[in-house]
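Marked as duplicate of an earlier ticket. Keeping the data here for the record.
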Amino acid sequence: MVLERLSSIANLFGSSPERRDALARLLTPTDLPGSGWRKMSDKTWRTGAKGEQTEWALRAGEAGSLTAFRSIQNRGVRQWMWSQMTPLVSVPDAHAEFGRIKDRGVSNRGAVRVQNEKDVAVDPFLGATRIWAHEQSTIGLAGPGSNKLLAAVVASSVIVVCTSGAPVLNWTTMAGLAAKLGQRVPAAFGKN
């Protein structure tokens, strides 16, 4: 019984080789401009195991898709960045998840207050079939800051790059990082 439970929990987060492969696709501190960037945390989970059980989520879970997330901090200044990759079974499934990201928007868990927010026009990068960029201006105990989120569909995956703090990365840099992450999307997962 205990062994079955542990096996079930391990399956939720993926095996060690699966987890390593999924995390290896994400952005690393060396991908970011400047110095002082350090990895804060890595997370993986079975795609579709969290949140609403949509049809695309069930298909991704049955196929063994593993979503990967990494957060990185620049200790020299107030800058944070995270990247996420969610491989799905098909391009239509990736577009369905992309729509949910836009509907959820940018959640702000920091001790800041959003002053204003807007969508931003960003040119698509090679391989991206849909792209969404959103910016929030914030104010907190340490002063003004910003959150920027760029999400895209690449093949049958959804990728997200987000930065926050002050100063934040500019949109050209964000698009370059998203393009770099997009080049790491597994081409063979699912049916395109």
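See parent ticket for discussion. The first helix runs from residue 2 to 13.
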